[in-house]
Amino acid sequence: MNEVKVINSGNKFAHATVGSLHGFEGKQFVKDATGATSCEISFGTLPSGQSVPFFHSHKNNEENYIILSGSGKFQVDDETFEINEGSVIRVSTNCDRNIKCTSDTPLTYICIQAKEGSLGAYTMTDAEITTRGNLM
Ligand code: ZN
């Protein structure tokens, strides 16, 4: 089972890791390690043929699943569909969901959970180009 480790942090950032995603096992939530205030992020993996052992629903938060490797099926209420590496699935509040690995290799994914309807400005309506010197 991978653990979440804080690598370094400053006044304006926190850097944590779950380690290598090759051979990653289980589920890890990272909000507490980074101190995130706008969303919860988790890394998850399912071995071949496995699904999450329960369905669940959220009252306030939508979830966005990003499939990093493997392939499988996703179920929302009574609808199922195929998912593959690169798939991004948004799931609304108040519905049941589950995910299953159907590939020979594990299905590895990130789930980002955030309050439904909370995104106002984003990308270029929220960001501005700044003039900081590059130290890298
Ligand atoms: Zn959830």
If you had to describe this structure to a student in words, what would you say it looks like?
The chain is mostly beta strands. The chain has a single domain (5-118), classed as Jelly Rolls (Sandwich), CATH 2.60.120. 3% of the residues lie in helices and 43% in strands. The chain contains one helix and ten strands. The strands form three sheets. The chain has a five-stranded antiparallel β-sheet. A hairpin with a 2-residue loop joins strand 6 (71-76) and strand 7 (79-84). The longest helix is centred in the N-terminal third of the chain and has 4 residues, at 31-34. The relative contact order is 0.21. The model has no long low-confidence stretch (mean pLDDT 95). It binds zinc ion. Zinc ion binds next to loops.
Order of helices and strands: EEEHEEEEEEE
The chain-level structural class is mainly beta
Structural domains: how many:
1
What percent of residues are in strands? 35-45%
Low-pLDDT ranges: none
Write the layout of secondary structure elements.
Blueprint: E1 5-9, E2 14-17, E3 27-29, H1 31-34, E4 40-46, E5 61-69, E6 71-76, E7 79-84, E8 88-91, E9 97-101, E10 107-115
Antiparallel strand pairs: 1-2, 3-4, 4-10, 5-8, 5-10, 6-7, 6-9
